[in-house]
Automatic annotation (TrEMBL):
GO terms for biological process: protein ubiquitination. This is FBXW5 protein. Coiled coil: none annotated. Keywords: WD repeat. InterPro entries: FBXW5, Quinoprotein_ADH-like_sf, WD40/YVTN_repeat-like_dom_sf, WD40_rpt. WD repeats lie at residues 267-299.
Amino acid sequence: SPDLLLDYEEQLAASSTSTCPVFDLGSDSEEEEAKPRQTTEPAVQELPDDGGVMAEDGLQQFFDDLMEGRVKPAMTETELETKVAELFVRNRTKLPELNLLPTDSNSKTKYLIFTTGCLTYSPHQIGIKRILPHQMTTAGPVLGEERSSDEFFDSLDHVIDIHGHIIGMGLSPDHRYLYVNSRAWPRDCVISDPMQPPPIAEEIDLHVFDLKTMKEVKRALRAHRAYTPNEECFFIFLDVSKDFVASGAEDRHGYIWDRHYNICLAKLQHDNVVNSVAFSPVEQELLLTASDDTTIKVWRSPRAVRIQQARKPRPRQRLLSWLMNQKS
């Protein structure tokens, strides 16, 4: 249904006029990783607070305005419940403490990137959390130390709202671009019950976000589909190489796109849902796909196949080599 597809022109226009906190999560290119990097002091992100009013005060102010009839235009019951839910979540989320952010410009900052959501249990936002050096252990980050007993969540440094059900994420090799699989919600949907997520499109949108600017940089890639109902949580793993991006789908195919030209290069046939794809870490023209048909298939590009065949010695050469060894 066209109602379930995002209006990207309108979305891009809105994002260009709104302010967005900027901080560096990646290099400019894969080649930059090999060069010494000039690091700057990490930027400080501040969560928006509706004109300087704290979240708790904002919730109380909203109730006061509602009781005195200052909320215009009149809100429906579902719109009211949604607004209260948003304010409540912000009230229960701890704001970043500036003195916890590293001041050493040479420190190796790490970030935790994960799916989350404040309106419904189905993941519809991407959370980005700066991990301080003392929070890292051999088993991973240890969080929660900055929360008090009346706070539900750790503070986040940035949130990207997808307005849809997120079903997959993958980073580019240089860690600059984040690729996100999602199934869009209706554009004007109102969520009043977190246990009742909105309907989702069958078309999977593959979004590309630049982690230097925190903005979507390209029109979403499309070609693949998913059919799992909106009330179920599921994941379709994607993978990104230097030049390609690949994803599974529930239409019994895996897909490969060119990262630079945004065109679909291949559909990879299976007999059931393709749950996961992975490029070889040493050869991006070799891809593995895993499916509910209980198979893992290995795919090579035509160029890689030609190179592999050229390296195989011919039978006549083998015979000549054997004869030479016999004579010696």
